[in-house]
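Hi R.,

Here's the chain you asked about this morning:
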Amino acid sequence: MSAWDAYITNMQASGLQICGIYGLEGGPWAQSPQMKASQQEVAAIVTGIQGQQFPNGITIGGLRYTVIRMLPDTVTAKCRGAEDTSANYLVHAALAKTCIIIGGMCGPSERDTTKLVEDIRDYLVKSNY
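And here is the predicted structure, written out as tokens:
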């Protein structure tokens, strides 16, 4: 168990159903068992945020997400139409100094995803991550 696992536990306790913290090259520091993002998928999200473009949306665990909001250091996307409706997550990714935090949830509380992910990001930025 790494020190980063405690962050995942806290993120899940806050309501996020899938979540992970990754280096800017996409390597996982810690992630929930339900998070299926590959290193290449995370690296593409980092590149997309930095370049402010997602011409084909984002992909996590092989599922395509449609970008619904993009800011200079974040992206929010929604997966619709997955065969398994529990996989229809709203995901939010936020860049910190040395990592990216990705979290998602589906259901009536999904709008909380942005704040929950950004709260963790803001804490990590204050800690120089």
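One quick note: DSSP finds three helices and seven strands in the chain.

Cheers,
M.
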